[in-house]
Design a protein that fits this description.
The chain has twelve helices and eleven strands. By secondary structure, the chain is of the alpha/beta class. The protein has a single domain, classed as Rossmann fold. Strands 3-2-1-5-4-6-7-8-9-10-11 form an eleven-stranded mixed sheet, sandwiched between helices. A hairpin with a 7-residue loop joins β1 and β2. It is globular, with a radius of gyration of 20 Å.
Length: about 400
């Protein structure tokens, strides 16, 4: 769930309210209290389309990140890269070049103010409207003769287009620069009250995400395709993988390396999805946190059904499921969360790993399935979009 500020001093935080609700409040009262807390702690202002307007040339020391976009959002007009919450009848494509300021802190987005300054904030340097053929050609051109990896980011609930775009630019800047970042943006309402509408929007977008993954899989210069699905984007990712499997598209599935970050998926639904998809190599990776309060609210909305993103890796049943279904479940609860609801820890995970991960090129000893705990002295996965690096200090639970 998106926000850009902490609760005011002295106010009851959402985690406290949610926990109290789980202990004693009637279900309806608890749900109301939870959403009141969400609304009160959300930031009143969010980045609008103005942050997509190109600014002057970047300053010395800034890093350039080119993000390719495939979206089921409708354009505000055919000649603009301004996207609405309406659903497009076909995929829209775009390209954005984002400047990362010289003083950028890993794991954060330095948002521009009314007068964007490339010396201190993320800014858009260039953008272009693309058709599908140009989209494919430019990605192929980026990978070059030797080939390169592509990373597809599928954002979560309550996220506007600008937030998703700049988040992927940040993730790309903080990880390996030779990976081609691709944003799959679905038409989230970007509103706390839009949960049901967002769920319908991700359902609408399944065929389109399958098309994008299939298109990338056909590109010979793309070596590996990593997919990171965050929150409700994890549900969209799993439904798309299930669809590809039922269609017999092993040619696509075998090219994918999938990470679900705080997935907002009912546990029973997840089991049926995994059964339909079958084992993946490397194993499908699930990043979880027991204290994810955004998913606690989602659980309440779903009648108390457990969400996959809050699984407890110390639970022997979770360990058994991980081994039986060929999953890699990683607890990242020890990391500091950049958001109030502990829902965006995957961002901190990416930043921490990129700072400590060795580039030895050794084989990954954690390609096997299991349940693991991440600690800040090491890691069990490599940087975002490149899930084949050497593992460090993560230890499997036995």
């Amino acid at each position: 769930m998106k926000h850009h500020s902490k609760p005011v001093a002295g106010s009851r935080s959402f985690p406290q309210t949610a926990a109290r609700g789980l202990r004693g409040y009637p279900p309806i009262a608890s749900l109301v209290l939870g959403f009141l807390a969400l609304v009160l702690s959300a930031c009143a202002s969010r980045p609008g389309p103005e942050v997509l307007n190109p600014v002057a040339a970047p300053v010395p020391g800034a890093r350039m990140v080119t993000v390719y976009v495939a979206t089921t959002r409708e354009r505000a007009s055919p000649q603009q890269n301004v996207f609405t919450t309406d659903r497009s009848t076909g995929l829209n494509y775009a390209e954005f070049v984002i400047s990362i300021p010289p003083g950028h802190k890993a794991g954060t987005i330095e948002w521009p103010d009314k007068s964007p300054d490339p010396a201190t904030s993320f800014v858009t340097v260039r953008q272009a409207i693309l058709d599908e053929a140009t989209f494919r050609k430019r990605i192929g051109g980026r990978t070059g003769r030797g080939g390169s990896d592509a990373g597809v980011f599928v954002h979560g609930y309550n996220t506007n287009f600008q937030e998703a775009l700049f988040r992927l630019a940040q993730l790309s800047a903080d990880s390996q620069p030779d990976t081609v970042p691709v944003l799959f943006a679905w038409p989230s309402e970007a509103a706390i009250t839009g949960y049901v509408a967002d769920r319908e929007a991700v359902t609408y977008s399944r065929d389109y995400l399958a098309h994008v993954l299939s298109m990338l899989a056909r590109e010979r210069s793309v070596r590996n395709i990593a997919v990171i699905g965050h929150s409700m984007g994890g549900w969209l990712t799993m439904e798309t993988l299930r669809q590809l499997s039922l269609q017999g598209r092993k040619d696509v599935l075998t090219r994918l390396q999938v990470v679900l970050a705080a997935p907002d998926i009912d546990l029973d639904v997840f089991r049926t999805q995994v059964a339909a998809i079958g084992p993946m190599s490397p194993p499908l990776t699930v990043l979880v946190s027991k204290d994810d309060w955004a998913l606690a609210a989602s659980s309440r909305l779903s009648g108390g059904r457990e969400r996959v993103g809050t699984l407890d890796v110390a639970d022997v049943r979770v360990q058994a499921i991980a081994r039986q279904e060929g999953l890699r479940v990683v607890d990242i609860s020890t990391l500091e969360a950049p958001d109030t609801f502990n829902h965006d820890r995957f961002v901190s995970f990416a930043a921490v790993y990129s700072a400590v991960a060795p580039r030895s090129g050794g084989a990954d000893p954690l390609r096997q399935a299991g349940a693991f705990v991440f600690n800040t002295a090491g890691t069990v996965l490599s940087a975002p979009f490149t899930l084949v690096g050497q593992a460090l200090a993560g230890q499997p639970l036995r």
